Amino acid sequence: MISNETIVALSTPPGAGAIGVIRLSGKDAITITNSVFSGKDLLKQDSHTLHFGLIKDGDMVIDEVVVSLFVAPKSYTKENVVEISCHGSNYIIHQIISLLIRKGASAAKPGEFTLRAFLNGGLDLSQAEAVADLISSDSQAAHSVAMNQLRGGFSTELNLLREQLIHFASMIELELDFSEEDVEFANRDQLQDLINKITLVIHKLIRSFELGNVIKEGINTVIAGRPNAGKSTLLNALLNEDRAIVSEIAGTTRDTIEEVLNINGINFRLIDTAGIREATDTIEAIGVEKTMQKISQSAVLVYLFDVVNLSATEIKEDIVSLYKPGVSFVAVANKIDLSYNDRIKELNLPADINFISISAKENQGIEELKELIYNTAVGDKLSANHTMVTNIRHVEALQRTQTALSSVANGLANPVTSDFLAMDIKQALYYLGEITGAVTTDDLLENIFSKFCIGK
Ligand code: GDP
C-alpha cells in the first residue's frame, strides 16, 4: 500500500495567510527540494535544522522561504521530510507545488502523511485517528481526550488486553499440539477469570463512549419552558461571557450552527435555540411535537418556569410531561427577584430531580446553574486518567470483541474442544487488533485515511 513516491502537499489551510507550509515526504524529499532551492546544499545539512533561501524555477525567483529538514527516520512519517515555509499566497503555493511535482514529487492523497506514519510504525491506528480529532477539537475536554489517545493512553490499555488474550490463546494452542494426549495446560478456572476480567474492561470502554462521544461532539442541551418563562433572558445570561467560538470548518459534520456554551471545558450545544426563542405559542407550546422531538434527542433538558405566575400544579404537570429517562433533567425556578409565595415548598419535588432557583434578569444563580448542568450531564465521569473511547469505529470493534469473548465464556462453561475455544479467542484478538492497527486491511485503511484532509 505504501508507494516509493515522494509526496507533496500544502499542510496549512488554503487561502491567503502570513505563511503557508508545504510538506514533502519520501526518499527524494531533500533531493527534490535541493534542486529548486538556492542557498546551502540541503543534502549536506543535519536533521532538524532550518535554512533560509530562495525557491527558483530556473532563473525566476518564486519566493524567499525557510526550509526545515527532518532526515529519516527522525520525522513524523519516518521518511525524509521537508517543510517549506513560504509566504501564504495561493499563487506562490501553487507555483512551488507545481514546480516540486515537475521535479519528481507527486501530489499527496488525503491523510497520506499520517498513513505513512502509521505504516512505518510511527503511530498506531488509533493514534493516527487521534491526529484528526486533535485538529478538529474545539473544547478543552475534546482536546485532552484526543491528546491522551495520541500519546498512546488508549493503545496501551488495548495492548495490555491483547497480551493477556494472546497468552490465553497460546495456552490453548499448546493443548492443540498435544491433543492426542488429552492434556489441559490451561487451567479452566483461571481462563474463566481472565475472560471475566477482560470483558469487564471492554465493557467499561464501551460505556465510556457515551460520554466520550459527547465530549467530542458537544452535549445537546435544550432550554424549554412556557412563553415568558424567561428562556431568552436566561440564554443571554448564560452566553454572556462564555459564548464558545465555533468555527465553520468545511467538512465537519455539523450542518447547523448553534449557540454553544462552554462549562468547565465541555461544550454544551444549545440546540435550535433560535426556534425556542421564537416560540410564542400558547401554554401547550412545550407539548408540541417538534419541540418534543428536539428534547428527546437532547442529552440535557433544562426546564425553566416562572415561579411567580405558574401554579405548583402547572409546574408539576410540565415536569411530568418533559421528564424522560436517559435525559439529564434540570428544573429551574426563574424570577426569584420578584416576591412570590411558598410555591417552591408546595412543589415538593422528588429528591432525585436537580433543582435550582435563579433570576435570569438579575443574573442571580447563573454560575450555580452552570455547575448544576455540568454535574448533571458529566458529574465525576470525567477523570484525568480515565481512558475514553470517542470513535464509533473503536466502539464497534470493542462490541465485536465482546461478542467473541462471550462465545469463549460459553465454550468454557459448556466445555467445547480446545480448537473451538482457540477460534473464538482468535476472533476476539482480531477485532481488538483492528483498533490499534495490529490487524489491518486495505479497505479499513482507505476508509480511515480518506476522511483526512490533504496535507495531514
Ligand atoms: P421567554 O418567552 O421564555 O423567552 O421569556 P423572555 O426571556 O422573553 O422573558 C419574558 C419576560 O420575563 C421579559 O419581560 C423578561 O424581562 C422577564 N424576565 C425574565 N427573567 C426574569 C427574571 O429573572 N426576573 C424578572 N423580574 N423578570 C424576568
Automatic annotation (TrEMBL):
The source's superkingdom equals Bacteria
Cofactor(s) needed, names only, are: K(+)
What CDD domains does the record tag this protein with? trmE (cd04164), TrmE_N (cd14858)
Please name the top-level EC class of this enzyme.
hydrolase
The entry assigns this protein to a family as follows:
Belongs to the TRAFAC class TrmE-Era-EngA-EngB-Septin-like GTPase superfamily. TrmE GTPase family.
- What NCBIfam families does its record include? mnmE_trmE_thdF, small_GTP
Protein's recorded name: tRNA modification GTPase MnmE
- Organism equals Pedobacter steynii
Q: Lineage of this protein's species?
A: Bacteria, Pseudomonadati, Bacteroidota, Sphingobacteriia, Sphingobacteriales
